[in-house]
Amino acid sequence: MRCRSTADRGGVTAETAAALPSLVLVLGIALAAIQAGAVHVACVDAARVGARVLSRGEPEHAVRAAVADTAPGSADVRVHEHGGMARVTVTAPVPLGPLIDLPVEARGRAATPVEEREGANGALFVGAPGREQAKGAQGGGRDADAE
Fold first, then answer.
1. Pure H helices in the chain
2. Would you say the pTM of this structure is higher than 0.70?
């Protein structure tokens, strides 16, 4: 018969008990990184949707409504148009479970060229209503002799 030392008994259990908190910590960090990536992708998608809507000349409340459909729940949205570009920035905190927000924010930015649209007199305009700028000195390329 083999004789076992009583000092080695339960060693594996003790080592597992010591390593288990480390494994749980690594798992938590991995899940937080996955959650941060998912929030970032949602912010980028929401910013792209908002920039497309703004570039078509829709009012700001329509842009914010379109972004709200795609963005994470507690997202902050900034909308502006400058230099012929519609720009939207969406920022949201990264949640760690249902109750805890990490002190990290995910941010998505998008910029889309503002689409040209024709005004009542046939001139082409760039921008949303109320923020439009006439494009070209020829009234959008229409020939005055053709009328």
1. 11-55, 60-70
2. no
